[in-house]
TrEMBL record:
Subcellular location: Cytoplasm
Record carries keyword Cell inner membrane: no
Family: Belongs to the TPPP family.
Keywords: Cytoplasm
Transmembrane segments annotated in the record for this chain: none
Species of provenance: Sphaeramia orbicularis
UniProt-listed Gene3D superfamilies: EF-hand (1.10.238.10)
Signal peptide stretch: none
Coiled coil segments of this chain: none
Gene Ontology BP annotations: microtubule bundle formation; microtubule polymerization; positive regulation of protein polymerization
Compositionally skewed regions (Basic and acidic residues) per UniProt: 135-155
GO function terms (MF aspect): tubulin binding
Descriptive protein name: Tubulin polymerization-promoting protein family member 3-like
Length: 178
């Protein structure tokens, strides 16, 4: 192999990582169009000038079997050859393919744009239970933990005593004394 070239095994490893991305049933032997497009984007094969997302979709459709929705590694290699010539214009087929392999080797699906926990001052202020007043204050215990349903609803006292009666539960004691 030439100096600085990337082995097919490294590309196949990356192919497998992208093939299983987001699909719990995937075995890593076939890749769907969505993951192929993600791989092209994450590995900077799509540069917005020579290769666009449309180009990637067209090449994917061209190399896959007529009724299939996925491509194998062999079909994937064919697709890369086509994209390599588009991405690295003016280079020989082998040279362009090596460069595209270089972009892919060792890459994994990036979780860009994964939702992070918002930690803004406004959120802190809104969730600070010590600043709550009135009936809203009743929704939390001393530690600031919510009481759940008990804090949101007036739970009626069905003990049979009048509201605010201080001697509830003392009837039996009075009857025994008599």
């Amino acid at each position: 192999m030439a100096e600085g070239s990337v082995s097919v095994a490294e590309v196949e490893t990356a192919f497998q990582k992208f093939a299983v991305h987001g699909d719990t049933k995937a075995r890593g032997k076939e890749m769907n169009g969505k993951n192929f497009a993600k791989m092209c984007k994450d590995c900077q094969i799509i540069d917005g000038k020579n290769v666009t997302t449309t180009d990637v979709d067209i090449v994917f459709s061209k190399v896959k079997a007529k009724s299939a929705r996925v491509i194998t590694f062999d079909q994937f290699s064919t697709a890369l050859e086509e994209l390599a010539l588009k991405r690295f214009k003016g280079k020989s087929k082998e040279e362009a393919l090596q460069q595209i392999y270089g972009l892919i080797a060792g890459k994994e699906p990036a979780n860009a744009g994964v939702t992070k926990v918002a930690k803004a001052a406004a959120v802190d202020r809104l969730t600070d239970t010590s600043k709550y007043t009135g009936s809203h204050k009743e929704r939390f215990d001393e530690t600031g933990k919510g009481k759940g349903k008990a804090g949101r609803q007036d739970v009626p006292d069905t003990s049979g005593y009048v509201a605010a009666y201080k001697g509830s539960g003392t009837y039996d004691d009075k009857v025994k004394q008599a």
